[in-house]
Every structure is written in C-alpha cells, then in structure tokens.
Amino acid sequence: STSCGKEQPPEEILPQDKLVNIMIEFYLAESRLGKLSIKQDSAKKLFIPFEESVLLKYEVSDSALSRTYQYYYDHPTEMEKIYEVVLDSLSLRERKASSVLQTIK
C-alpha cells in the first residue's frame, strides 16, 4: 500500500542514483566517440564493449537496464527528474573542467 500517494518503482528497477551514474557514463562515452572522426557504425561497435564494462562496473544486467528504461518511459515525470540530475551533473563537470583549464593557462 502506498500511504504517501507516491508510487514506488518495482524492486527490479534500478535505483535512480545508479541510473543517473550509468547515464552520465554513457553520455560522456558517446561524447568522446562523437569527437573521433569515425563512421557512425564503427562508433556503435566501439560503444558496445564500453556499455558492457559500465554495466559490469555497476553490477547491472542489460535486461535490468532495459526494464528500468521502460519503467521510466512509462513514468515521464520521474524520467524528467532523472534527466535534470544527469544534465546538472554534466554541466557541473564541464564548469569544473573549464575552471581547471583556466588555472593551467
């Protein structure tokens, strides 16, 4: 029973903080691959082993990740909150990186 009125995700769904960390790693990898001058299909092939290593690092199966994505696509308000955290984290990383570069110059 949900006494507070907020639906809890099923147990097999990844916790939000874990999903955020995985999404950040995927975004950063895609960004790095995007800067390489290689074809799209080659980039996808390079991304697959990286994706597998991230899932191994966080002890997550690809089926659990798929179920989690499906759950959040069915709950867009929750997914929006997750994307906000991901974007905030990425912009914070970017600001830190540029301030480090400024001190090096």
Question: What is this entry, summarized?
Answer:
The protein has 105 residues and is an all-alpha fold.
List the helices and strands and how they pair.
Layout: H1 16-35, H2 40-57, H3 62-73, H4 76-104
Can you characterise this structure?
With 105 residues, this protein is an all-alpha fold. Helix content is 75%, strand content 0%. The protein contains four helices and no strands. The protein has helices spanning 16-35, 40-57, 62-73, 76-104. Helix 1 (16-35) packs antiparallel against helix 2 and helix 1 (16-35) crosses helix 4. The longest helix is centred in the last third of the chain and has 29 residues, at 76-104. It is globular and about 50 Å long. The mean pLDDT is 83.
Annotation keywords:
75% helix, mainly alpha, 4 helices, single chain, globular, 105 residues
Number of strands: 0
Share in β-strands: under 5%
Sum up the overall morphology in one term. globular
Mind summarizing the main beta sheet?
none
End-to-end separation in angstroms reads 58 Å
Q: What is the mean pLDDT?
A: 83
Structural class, please?
mainly alpha
Low-confidence stretches: none
- Specify the helix fraction band: over 70%
Radius of gyration: 17 Å
The ordered string of helix (H) and strand (E) elements is HHHH
> How many helix segments?
4
